[in-house]
RNA sequence: GUGGGUGUAGCUCAGCCGGCAGAGCACCUGACUGUGGCUCAGGGGGCCGUGGGUUCAAAUCCCAUCACCCACC
């Protein structure tokens, strides 16, 4: 289906399934493995496009479901498309809203036709079909588009998982007709199919075979990191990631912590997104070389060190823990902004480190030392030195 | 000066038909994985303005006193 190949390998690791690649999009290239900051409502919360660019972000996320509710797809189209509207000229991937069907379950009902739901802020009754979701992403002008899928909760019975896979495949088939037509007409985003199947590897295998039969540009693992134990997530990924076509980009949706990401890279995954760096940043938790640091803790009241002494980001070059703690306690907007900036910097640096290690043949070493540190160190703790 | 009201957690207040001192917010700690600038879970906090009286027992009833608020002169 994809005539010019958008994705190509640059380097593969000898000892694991890790690989470096390049994803060519309509708004520039993405070096993989890559982390994509989440910008659900057409903004990576608290950061400007210029800041994102200076942090080295390549591709960022948007969300069809949220943008459909507000401000509306047609409005964005009339404003010149999502890139122009939000002032970001780099690659954009939009999530379909399948996850919102799971996370906002109280507000919606599902049929084979699509999703009926109530807008979360004004209660309007709305509807999205898999065709709508595909067309809306064409209208938005995004670079990478996701199919509408059904993401079941955890835990879920095998019967329930079978139904979710069935509906995800039915929707994929219907969306692929829209995609085929768009490709004939010219410019079309890179479309990803989404694998479901909960924690049942056999079911995921069948889902992958059917999706590959339909032929998408890339494949995403969905329905993970929905509340299951981390070991189980890795076990399921370990049993199924290698079944995804090797010549297509592989996206692990919603994952995760830095240590989760490197393990998934080792299993052959290329793309990641997660709300943790931005959400935890807004709530006062920083990722550092020595673990998570909750900056509002009293022990930092008079700590004049930066968040992370090994970090070169603007927040670490400029502000002390004591000052950032003050900002959070005083409910000042600069606090969430600076921790978001720092966390995104941390994640993007982490991906650079991973890519570099793969290219230089040091990936296994990096993986080993990461897992060792995970098991042996608790989050950083320092002496209480407030008077 | 006279009359009335109010004093309980850092803040705003409930409890006043005597019977183990409470809530919300704030503070402290933990959680957060395709985002509702949240949300959830736990924790520390008190001479019930002060002094006396009644009672087995007083934040609660009685007397005095201090502080603040309102009205009137």
Tag the structure with descriptive keywords.
RNA-binding; TIM Barrel; single chain; disordered C terminus; alpha/beta; 387 residues; 17% strand; 8-stranded parallel beta sheet; 15 helices; 3-stranded antiparallel beta sheet; 2 domains
Commentary on this structure:
The protein has helices spanning 49-55, 64-69, 73-78, 82-86, 98-103, 130-140, 158-184, 201-214, 230-240, 258-266, 276-282, 314-318, 321-329, 334-359, 363-376; strands at 7-12, 19-25, 28-32, 34-36, 60-63, 92-95, 108-110, 115-118, 125-128, 144-146, 190-195, 218-221, 250-252, 271-273, 285-288, 291-294. It is an alpha/beta fold and 387 residues long. It has an 8-stranded parallel beta sheet. Strands 1-2-3 form a 3-stranded antiparallel beta sheet. Helix 8 links the parallel strand 11 and strand 12. Helix 6 crosses helix 7. It is globular, with a radius of gyration of 21 Å.
């Amino acid at each position: 289906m994809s005539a010019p190949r958008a994705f190509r390998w640059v380097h593969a690791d000898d000892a694991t399934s890790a690989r470096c690649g390049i994803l060519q999009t309509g708004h520039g290239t993405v070096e993989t493995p890559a982390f994509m900051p989440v910008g659900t409502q057409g903004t990576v919360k608290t950061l400007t496009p210029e800041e994102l660019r200076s942090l080295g972000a390549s591709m960022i996320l948007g969300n069809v479901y949220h943008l459909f509710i507000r401000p509306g797809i047609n409005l964005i189209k009339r404003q010149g498309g999502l890139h122009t509207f939000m002032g970001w000229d780099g690659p954009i991937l939009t999530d379909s809203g399948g996850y919102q069907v799971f996370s906002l379950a109280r507000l919606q009902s599902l049929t084979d036709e699509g999703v009926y739901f109530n807008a979360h802020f004004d209660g309007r009754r709305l509807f999205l079909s898999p065709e709508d979701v595909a067309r809306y992403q064409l209208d938005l002008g995004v670079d990478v588009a996701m199919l509408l899928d059904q993401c079941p909760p955890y835990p879920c019975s095998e019967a329930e998982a079978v139904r979710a896979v069935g509906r995800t495949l039915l929707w994929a088939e219907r969306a692929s007709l829209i995609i085929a037509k768009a490709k004939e007409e010219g410019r079309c985003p890179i479309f990803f199919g989404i694998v479901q199947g909960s924690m049942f590897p056999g079911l995921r295998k069948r889902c992958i075979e059917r999706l590959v039969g339909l032929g998408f540009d890339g494949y995403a693992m969905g329905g993970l990191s929905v509340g299951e134990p981390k070991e189980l997530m890795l076990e399921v990924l370990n049993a199924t990631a290698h079944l995804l076509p090797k010549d297509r980009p592989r996206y692990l949706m919603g994952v995760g912590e830095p240590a989760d990401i490197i393990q998934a890279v080792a299993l052959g995954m290329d793309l990641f997104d997660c709300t943790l760096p931005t959400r935890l940043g807004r709530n006062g938790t920083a990722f550092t070389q020595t673990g998570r640091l909750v900056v509002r803790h009293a022990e930092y009241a008079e700590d004049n060190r930066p968040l992370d002494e090994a970090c070169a980001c603007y927040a670490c070059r400029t502000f002390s823990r004591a000052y950032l703690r003050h900002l959070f306690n005083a409910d000042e907007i600069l606090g969430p902004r600076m921790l978001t900036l720092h966390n995104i910097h941390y994640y993007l640096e982490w991906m650079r480190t991973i890519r570099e290690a793969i290219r230089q043949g040091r990936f296994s070493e990096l993986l080993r030392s990461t897992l060792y540190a995970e098991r042996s160190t608790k989050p950083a703790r320092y002496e209480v030195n407030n008077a």
